[in-house]
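haha ok so turns out i had the wrong file open the whole time. this is the CORRECT one, sorry everyone. sequence first:
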Amino acid sequence: VADALDPPPREADDPFYGDIAFTWDVYRALKENQEDLYRDADYQAVLSGFPSQLLPPSGPRKTRRRSEAGAVEGLRGVRAIPHNAMLQQIGAPLNVAGSVRAALRVDPDRLADLAAASPRFARAFSLIGAARARASVPALRAYAAAFDPTMWANRAHGGAEPGLAAPAQVLAARLAAQRRFGALARLANLAMSDVAAFDSLALAGDESAELAASRRRVQLLHAVRVALMMRASLLAARTPVFSPRNDVTKDDVVDFVLDLRVDDAVAALRDAFPSGGDAAQASSLMDEPADAAAAEVGYARLHADVVDPLERAFALMREISAAVAHDHGAYG
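then structure:
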């Protein structure tokens, strides 16, 4: 970055410096739009949800800062590097690639002329171009689709997938009362506007074969992870109804998994359905308790069919996170 932004030689006659009033107008437009994005309710809702769980632990520093009172203060409490990483993981690096549409509103023809004539401007916008090249609106829309209650309702009533009706109905009901899908879908629309605005400047040139191949690989990774998220959601929805255990219910377990708080979901399920423990006592937690022998067999089956696959699915999601980070050159 420092190399890309090194000032040009003093003798260079760069219009970036010759028309400083216009370049400041562009800068202010970018800055104000980024501040609006940060305050946007949908942006806040998305980054406060599942993306943070895609990041593996990265050392002693917590993802979130705490205020002097010890309370987490929304996105303002999220450290810069995890903030960047979350956006990368959902294919939406809007904090770098975003806001070009706002700059274009200043004077699109003049901005295009500056982009063509100013080496300094082109170097600065190359950073936006690198983020744009790795943005994937289709991936962001796919993440949104995983939380679409209408999609789950249609799958529940379609009849083409045996055994899917009951868990799909559970997911449709849980998601209908939440804003996950709408927030992600609107954020995808916003990202599409920024992508179109950047492409209209034609700053990036033709996409190289190497970058095109990288894009396809990353989109495939996103597709696999969306499939894993949907499988994990169905697994959670197949959990039997149980009496509240440590104030956790089946609905809470489903919500944990929708937030990708899979460790919390697994801990709750192991507590409610212990394997190899006192089956008679544990079975009394279910709405329809079984006898001790049946409970012991049933709990082992639940661990094999739900709990263990949940853990495996989440481990694969985290492996995909590492691959996506590497594509962005984000290491450590």
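Confidence is low (pLDDT under 50) at residues 65-72.
again sry for the mixup
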